[in-house]
C-alpha cells in the first residue's frame, strides 16, 4: 500500500512540474522507465476514477507521519547500537590490553627469574652429584687401602700397645731405683730389650727405642742426672706412641668423614631437588597462564575485528535506509504540496 502511495506521490510531483514547465516532456521522460510508466498509469487511473483529492491528501499525510516515525525509530535504534558498539569496543580494547600486559609480565618473570633459577638449581645439583661421585671414589679407594693394610694395621696397634705397657713398667722400675743393685740394673736393661723386641725393626719407633737402650747401657744408675735423661727419653717414647696410633687410625676416620660428607651431599641434592620441582611446577603454571592469556588476546582481537566489521555494515545499512527515508519523506512532502494545489485530471499515459 505504501509503495502505491509513494508512486502516487512521485507522480503528483512530476505532474506539478508538467504543469509548471512542459508536461509533454516530463511524460516522455517518465515513459522511458518501468517505474515512470507505473506512475503515469496510477495518475491516469486516479484521474479517470475521479476520486476525492482529500483522500489522497490524507493518505499522503499518513505516509509522511509513518516515514517520520520510521526515521525517528531508525535514528534511535542506531544511536542505541552505536552506544553498544562503543562500549563493546572499549571493553574489548581493555581486555586486549590486559591480556598483553599479562603475557608480557608472565614472560618477563619466566625469562628473568624462573628460567635462571631453574638453571642455577640444576647446575648446583649437577655439581653436588659430581662431588658425591668423587666422594664415593675416594671412599672405595680408602676401603681398598684399609682391606690391604688391615692385617698390618692390627699388628701395629697390638705392637704399640705392648710397647706402651713395657715402657710404663720401665718407668715404674726406674722410679723404684734409689741405690740400684746390679740385678736391678740388669732387670731394667732387660725391660728395654723386651720393648725393643716388641718393636719391629722396620717400625718408625725402632730408632727411638734403640737410642734409649744405648743410653741405658753401662750407665751409673746412681747418678740422678743419668736417671733423669733415661726417664725423659722413656717419656718421650711414651708420648710418641699415641701419635703413631692416631696416624694408624686415620684411614678409619677418613671413611667416617667420607660417609658424613656423602650424607651431607645427599641432603643438599634432596633440598635442591625439592626447589627444582617447585620451580618447574611454577614454570608450568605460568606457561599455561601465559598461553591462555595469549589465546584470550587473539580471541578478543578477533571479536573486536568482527564487531568493527559488523558495525561498519550496519552503518552502511543505516545510512542507506536513512537516505531512502529522507528521500521518500521529501518526495511525499513535495507531493502533498502539489496535490493540494494542482489539477492533474488531464494526465495521460
From TrEMBL:
<keyword id="KW-0732">Signal</keyword>
<protein>
    <recommendedName>
        <fullName>Trichocyst matrix protein</fullName>
    </recommendedName>
</protein>
<feature type="coiled-coil region">
    <location>
        <begin position="53"/>
        <end position="84"/>
    </location>
</feature>
<keyword id="KW-0175">Coiled coil</keyword>
<feature type="signal peptide">
    <location>
        <begin position="1"/>
        <end position="20"/>
    </location>
</feature>
Amino acid at each position: 500500500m505504501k509503495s502505491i502511495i509513494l508512486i502516487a506521490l512521485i507522480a503528483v510531483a512530476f505532474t506539478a512540474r508538467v504543469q509548471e514547465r512542459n508536461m509533454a516532456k516530463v511524460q516522455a521522460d517518465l515513459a522511458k522507465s518501468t517505474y515512470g510508466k507505473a506512475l503515469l498509469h496510477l495518475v491516469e487511473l486516479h484521474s479517470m476514477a475521479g476520486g476525492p483529492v482529500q483522500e489522497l491528501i490524507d493518505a499522503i499525510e499518513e505516509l509522511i507521519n509513518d516515514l517520520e516515525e520510521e526515521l525517528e525509530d531508525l535514528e534511535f535504534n542506531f544511536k542505541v547500537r552505536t552506544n553498544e558498539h562503543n562500549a563493546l569496543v572499549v571493553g574489548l580494547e581493555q581486555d586486549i590490553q590486559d591480556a598483553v600486559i599479562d603475557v608480557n609480565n608472565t614472560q618477563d618473570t619466566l625469562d628473568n627469574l624462573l628460567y635462571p633459577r631453574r638453571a642455577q638449581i640444576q647446575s648446583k645439583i649437577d655439581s653436588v652429584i659430581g662431588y658425591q661421585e668423587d666422594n664415593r671414589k675416594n671412599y672405595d679407594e680408602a676401603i681398598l687401602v684399609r682391606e690391604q693394610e688391615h692385617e698390618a694395621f692390627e699388628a701395629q696397634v697390638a705392637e704399640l700397645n705392648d710397647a706402651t705397657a713395657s715402657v710404663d713398667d720401665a718407668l715404674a722400675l726406674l722410679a723404684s731405683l734409689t741405690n740400684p743393685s746390679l740385678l736391678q740394673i740388669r732387670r731394667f736393661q732387660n725391660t728395654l730389650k723386651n720393648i725393643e723386641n716388641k718393636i719391629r725393626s722396620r717400625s718408625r719407633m725402632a730408632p727411638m727405642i734403640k737410642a734409649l737402650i744405648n743410653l741405658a747401657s753401662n750407665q751409673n744408675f746412681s747418678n740422678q742426672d743419668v736417671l733423669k735423661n733415661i726417664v725423659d727419653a722413656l717419656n718421650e717414647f711414651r708420648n710418641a706412641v699415641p701419635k703413631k696410633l692416631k696416624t694408624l687410625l686415620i684411614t678409619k676416620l677418613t671413611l667416617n668423614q667420607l660417609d658424613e660428607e656423602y650424607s651431607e651431599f645427599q641432603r643438599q641434592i634432596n633440598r635442591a631437588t625439592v626447589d627444582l620441582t617447585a620451580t618447574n611446577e611454577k614454570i608450568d603454571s605460568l606457561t599455561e597462564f601465559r598461553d591462555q592469556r595469549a589465546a584470550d588476546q587473539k580471541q578478543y582481537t578477533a571479536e573486536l575485528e568482527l564487531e568493527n566489521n559488523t558495525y561498519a555494515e550496519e552503518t552502511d545499512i543505516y545510512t542507506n535506509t536513512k537516505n531512502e527515508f529522507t528521500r521518500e519523506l521529501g518526495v511525499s512532502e513535495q507531493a502533498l504540496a502539489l496535490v493540494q494545489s494542482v489539477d492533474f485530471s488531464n494526465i495521460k499515459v
